[in-house]
Structure prediction request, 436 residues.
Amino acid sequence: MKLFPQGVLNEGVRKREVFGWAMYDFANSGYTTVVLTAVFGAYFVGVVAGGADWATLAWTFAISVSSLIVMLTMPAIGAYADLKAAKKRLLALSTVGCVLATAALALAGPGDLWVAVAAVVLSYTFYSYGESLIAAFLPELARDEAMGRVSGWGWSFGYLGGMLALGLGLAYVTAAQSRGEPASAFVPVVMLVTAAIYGLASVVTFALLRERATPTPESSVAAKTVGVKASLHRLAQTWKQARHYRDLRWLLTCCACYQAGISVVITLAAVYAEQVLGFKQADTMLLVFMVNIAAVVGAFAFGYWQDRVGHKRALGVTLAGWMLMTLLAALATGPAMFWVAAVIAGLCMGASQSAGRAMVGLLTPPDRRAEFFGLWSFAIHLSVVIGPLTYGVITLATGGNHRVAILCTSLFFALGLWLLRPIDMARGQRAAREIG
Prediction:
């Protein structure tokens, strides 16, 4: 059996184009792996903010602000992309923005709180725009029955990009620490390396990926402006129209819950490892490197499995895995159990993110992909506001008790599992074809 058969792709789609699409996951995964998870979050808390009691809350606040910006603007951007057939053009703009803002993180040293906050807000906002826009290409590339595995190809290949950026950063950090250099000397270099990989790898995407959509008449307010007012109007209109797609609405609500837990793991894993278990920078980076290896396996293998057993059932299994992971992390008193929890997180991360994107693609009308993926982006970023900010508030209220905060995170996964129950994928796909 071929791992990458041509038959799973839509008519006229070549494998090289799917490779170009997957290269964007390769490009932007370095940002999430290095900036959000392994390096800059812990650097922000321990160095930029000086380890203050409010430092974790400040980090989660910066992430939440950027998520609010995306929530307010992405629906109109998605509608504009559909109406103008501009997904690829907007993707290019968001990529340039994220690369430049990621490089600007190198300017943040001890005490440079507002420099760090501004660069984090800008880089994460542009990253999020790109994540939503690249996801909207998926239904154009893959057949319905193969959406899971093609989504898995992208996620698994993306984690390899994260491993590349993290591996280069780890090599530099190890050498710098052996020379006795402080974090304020080597973390800025790691940020520049991450920005360079993002920019260079994304060139392949823009060289190979096609914009198949065609412009439609400018009948919507979103076609004329992408302001906050227009975005809120479009969001309300799209959500009202989405009542015809009740399974999609249930899925978006489910995603908002379980992604809140995932966002905690992504943005605070390194902070937890260093503050609770005493990990050093190089130890944390090695841990996240191993997590990425597990995520590659999870996303790739899971993509095939979910197409066979069903997306809903497969996502439910991963949510149960997330609950186990948070329990182990809360109970860990040494590195061994935390490493086990981290490997489980990697397997579940690749699997659950691949499944969510594939399920949204299956339940979305063909002529409104970017717009409805904008709703998906809204749900995801609502979760990024709720999850990390809740974690930050709990740590502040409990005098820095990260164990209580990570244990409370399991409730997000439990609620997501409960909200998954009413979803009927077959009914949702019929609605997307018939109503759309």
